[in-house]
Amino acid sequence: MKSDWKKIGRITLVVIPLIFLIIFYFYPIWEIASVTLRRLDPDWMKDIPWGIISDAAGFTVFQAVLSTVLTLVLGLPAAYLFGTYRFRGKNLLKILTTIPFILPTVVVAAGFNALIGPRGWLNLLFMGLFNLAQPLINLQNSLAAILIAHVFYNTSIVIRVVGGALEQMDPNLEMAARMLGASRWKTFRNISLPLLLPSVVSALLLVFLFDFTSFGVILMLGGPRFSTLEVEIYIQTVQFLNLPLAGILSFLQLFFSMAIAFLVMRSGGQFIAPIVPHVKSERLRSPEKPGEKIFLALMAAVLIILLVFPLLGLALRSFLSVETTRAGQVTAWNFTFDFYLSLFENTRASIFYVPPVEALRNSLIFASASSILAILLGFMLSAGIRGVKRFDRIVELLILLPLGTSAVTLGLGFFSAFSRAAASLRYYPLLIPAAHTLIALPFVMRVIRPAMESIPESLKDAAKMLGASPFEVWKYIELPLILRAVITSLIYSFTISLGEFGATSFLARPELPTLPIAIFRYLNLPGGNNYGQAMAMAVIILAVCALSIFMLERLQFRKAENDRMNGHAHT
């Protein structure tokens, strides 16, 4: 009887998250299909603008391929740097190169706007030095801006995946080959490359997937000239209310993104890689030859210029007030805190104006709610499927489905499924944390589940034999052992929710904007004060992301120290 109740409890733990998945994922996706299929009659099929679809699909693939190639050109040497050498400042540089990966797209766009935009640092510097009326660097609404932003975004993926695999590689294999007379090139070709190839393929597919589903970068840096599937879905829904065409584009995008995600898993790589992975350091060595030192210096300089300067420019630009003449010439630069102070003010005295601090409050509330919900659902699933191998793979695939679905498609599904009810105005804000939970849940599962499965059953059995109740076993045995994983999951999900832009762009109401939505709006408004406020809001998100990476790094460091001490104790 006791075992029956235990089985019912475990089934309940799995059923509740699956019901959440059915309501907030499968039902919205079905609604997209329903809206699309209802219009698939011969007359409507004749009027489908196949040119728009083919152009959007073609440019999506083109920019994704080009962005992936450029990312690998920079990322592979950077991965070799981190996976081979030990040098001063390496941990700091690793943190700085990891921050771009978790930054929201609006912050990335704001960072490049602050550095090379029309009102960015470099253009203001050149305009002031050479008395120019027009910006010297003009990358706004260009393919170059899109490609640079994608390289900025995804280089850290290559560093983490390939660099982590390289750092964990057994150095004795290469050493044995060299002792047997193999040259450095032959050792690399026959030993290192085959071992690294799965991680390289995995990184390539992951970068291509993120570039293929890119939305905010294309929308904010590409401008009206460039439209991918993601951007076209947004335009057809928000501007033209053409849901059938948006549905066709969504399923085309969903098919390709799911296929790429399947290839990632088939390649042996992980669809979700940890932000700060714990790796061994036996292979690391200090650079000794002059060529190695030159490579280290050049590579570190390139990474700092591309990955750190936009963030530094963003932070500095949020404190800079620029005075210009009517002709556009710069007359004075003033450092000020006015942009941060104005976040709390309704400077235009508008009835419908929402101060930016309200957007910050909304983002914090949504992020907190989605983080708690994601951890609860992740904990329930991890506990429910623990030790049940038959459902293990099935549940994992179901949880990964929302991550393989673009945020724009997810937002369109929510818009189609939940916007027609009479009470939608009242419950619509609740959909934002639900959408964020779907996106964060796979990350939470990836962290909490291994931690729970690593707890020895003997510890719990011993506690039960000593008279501990199930609650006491959980409180005094399981919770302390998984607490670090819970905190890591909380940081993951909070950061993801705080910066989510794609799905939120469909769900945020004008009176309840989130911080990324507010940044997007303010960047598109004229006036220096609006631009400065957008920079200030972007810096707030940047600070939260940087703090999150630092906390994750500290957690990983403490875990590594504990593992090392436990290893010495067992020895």
Structure commentary:
The longest helix is centred in the last third of the chain and has 43 residues, at 528-570. This protein has 24 helices and two strands. The protein has two domains: 1-45 and 355-512, MetI-like fold; 48-341, MetI-like (MetI-like fold). 75% of the residues lie in helices and 2% in strands. Strands 1-2 form a two-stranded antiparallel ribbon.
Helix content: over 70%
Widest sheet, order of strands: 1-2
What is the averaged pLDDT score?
Answer: 81
Strand content bin: under 5%
Q: According to CATH, what is the topology of the largest domain?
A: MetI-like fold
CATH superfamily of the largest domain: MetI-like
Topology:
Blueprint: H1 2-37, H2 42-46, H3 50-84, H4 90-102, H5 105-116, H6 121-130, H7 143-168, H8 171-179, H9 184-212, H10 216-222, H11 229-239, H12 243-266, H13 290-317, E1 320-324, E2 330-335, H14 338-341, H15 356-384, H16 389-404, H17 407-418, H18 424-427, H19 431-453, H20 457-465, H21 470-499, H22 504-507, H23 515-523, H24 528-570
Short description:
By secondary structure, the chain is mostly helical. It has 24 helices and two strands.
Q: Can you tag this structure with a few keywords?
A:
571 residues; 75% helix; mainly alpha; 24 helices; two-stranded antiparallel sheet; MetI-like fold
